[in-house]
Specification:
261 residues; alpha/beta; Rossmann fold; seven-stranded mixed sheet; 44% helix; disordered N terminus; binds S-adenosylmethionine
């Protein structure tokens, strides 16, 4: 079994994730999940920051379907930034998108730069939820939304042995936090209209379907591209994830809150 200390979005990982989650996505649910967590928020013409833009599918979708005026996607991986630029070009949205490679840490943008901030399943990688919430608040214009999805913990404190086994196999560091921690961070930053929508039940079924596809229809095609060892490792990750989803310890969640106008 391959053990990685930190989740790396290298070519093999991206090939596998896109096979399971669709082109441009390194997170589950694709554009349907994005549309759900953005439901009721009008982003037409808006300037939007996407934290952890990954493979760029969300950013293209924001321009094409939500008619966003300008998306700034940030990521810490220069290879992913190149992929985002290529995807934007292929989709004819280069004019409306900008992708910036950043160092982990404070957001490199002036106060009140964006109408909205989004992020899909990336904030799990950022341990300081209070620092991040305050920084998102700072870069938002008054009245601006933060609307995102993320992987949350269904517990506070130390992970159970099953959760620990999953986090290590996945290569996630221990930056995962509970809804309670996120809420406290958002409140301390000054946000209002804070809402969480728990997606555990949805993803419990979805993750089984994904794992079965990896073992079934996707197996041969992926084996020839990423190798059997890596593929078997990822199927093991999915098996471990299903255990912690069933135990309610892993809780994919939609988050939203607003900076007072
Ligand atoms: C699970 S992927 C999600 C990517 C994309 N949002 C999606 O839904 O397909 C997490 C992404 O967060 C990025 N990331 C990790 N730490 C980060 C940080 N401190 N700032 C910005 N991006 C970060 C990773 O490089 C990776 O691309």
């Amino acid at each position: 079994m391959t053990e990685k200390s930190i989740q790396e979005y290298d070519d093999d990982m991206n090939t596998l994730l896109e096979a399971v989650w669709g082109p441009g996505f390194a997170s589950p649910g694709g554009t349907d999940e994005v549309d759900l967590y953005l439901q009721g928020i009008d982003l037409a013409g808006a300037s939007v920051l996407d934290i952890g833009c990954g493979l760029g599918g969300l950013d293209v979708h924001l321009v094409k379907q939500h008619k966003v005026g300008k998306v700034t996607g940030i990521d810490i991986d220069p290879g992913l930034i190149r992929r985002c630029n290529r995807l934007a070009e292929k989709n004819g949205v280069s004019e409306q998108t900008e992708f910036v490679c950043v160092e982990p840490g404070p957001l490199p943008f002036a106060d009140a730069s964006f109408d909205a901030v989004t992020s899909k399943d990336s904030i799990i990688h950022i341990a300081d939820k209070h620092g991040l919430a305050a920084d998102i608040y700072r870069v938002l214009k008054p009245g601006g939304w933060f609307a995102a999805s993320d992987w949350l913990a269904g517990y506070d404190g130390k992970p159970s042995p099953e959760m620990q086994a999953y986090l290590i196999a996945e290569g996630f560091d221990f930056g995962i936090a509970s809804a309670n921690t996120y809420r406290l961070a958002m409140e301390a930053a000054g946000f209002e209209d804070i809402e969480f929508v728990d997606r555990n039940e949805w993803y419990r079924d979805e993750a089984r379907r994904e794992r079965d596809q990896l073992r079934g229809a996707l197996y041969d095609g992926l084996e020839s591209r990423v190798g059997a060892e890596f593929l078997e490792h990822e199927i093991d990750v999915w098996d471990k994830m299903i255990v912690v989803l069933d135990q309610g310890l892993m809780r994919p969640t939609h988050l939203r809150c607003r900076k007072p106008g």
